[in-house]
Amino acid sequence: MHESVPLRPRLLCVVAIAVLTAASCGVAPSEPPEIPSSPNSQPPIQRPGRTVGVANDIPGFNQLVDPSTNTRAGFDYQFILWLGDHVDPPFTPSLVPILIEQRVPVIVNGSVDLVVNVLSITDEKKDEIGIAGPYLLTRQGVLTRASGPSISTLEDLHGRNICTVDGSTSELQLETLEDLRLITLTRELGNSGCAEASPEFSRGLLDRSIGAKCIRGSI
To answer: Which residues contact 113 (CB under 8 A, 6 or more apart)?
Structure first.
């Protein structure tokens, strides 16, 4: 009957030799083997992407502050980030710049999945697209020079050249006065066109040929 040999000392010796051999050859110990995943484990959930139509030039709402780094600021921008984290399922937003006049068409033709932008809710628009909200209520306003006359009534706009954004509710409201030849409308594609990018408007502010700009109220 043979005497049993303890296995533990021999096992420890083999491990020690393996480590010493690797060290003496200047080779780093090999990585530990991968542990197979459990059949019940689930891979990380990949968020689906969603295209979101946004404005680039509405201060306080969604403004492209630095195009070189795609830095944005504003209520709508922060709301988009929050929405991506809190809806079920969550999504990763991919922002698509659009003009005011494109807000409804890009939804209708499927160019984007949703639009987060300033929008007047009307029965006509409800017939074309689904509208969530309102999550924020604003009002129409008129922006003038600090040194200019006070504008408090529609009559105060008579005889003035007013810059407004093409396709906006402000344009629709002012067209009645334009049809009556009480005002002159200068139409731009975006807010920046009226505020700073348009040479005509900039010169108009200086020579007072443009008396006001009709805008939506900010937060």
So the answer is: 50, 51, 52
